[in-house]
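Continuing the series of single-chain predictions for the mutant panel. This is the parent chain; the variants come on the following pages.
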Amino acid sequence: MEARVNNYDKIKEDGAGYGLVVEGNSYTRVLGRLGIGVRQEKEWYGWNVKGEYKLLLSKEVPTIKAGFDGSNEKFEVVGNEEGRQVLGVGGGVSCKIMDRVECFANTNYHIGYKYKAMQANIGISYKIGTLTPTFVKRSIKMKKELNKYIYEGLFDKIKQYKKKI
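Parent structure:
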């Protein structure tokens, strides 16, 4: 689910001499999103690709109210119609520079009814700590101990069986 609230303050234009006034307001866009991605991470680099489908659940066209200074007449300014469905693809790469530092580059392309958008970003990230919860660490440790116990026990049983033969 993706949600965005756009807020804007009252704007009063005075350069052209008409005194255009745009009332402050907000509008909300809500989209449902379904996607799939593949991610591969190696010791010093990583990459990812993804695809997604978005369905607009709110109004297709945002509108704002405006008028002219000194007039009681108001009118609506209609935004760009984007349609209800959007398809997107994206991908990225990362490269480890130091233990907790990596550089990355990502890009996304979305297309819908009367709508195309491309986005790209690059950057450097620094990881400040571990995100693995304590209970996950304990679970991993217990699993390793259990596997060791089963493995060693299995060999003991095989040795005892061979002695009987």
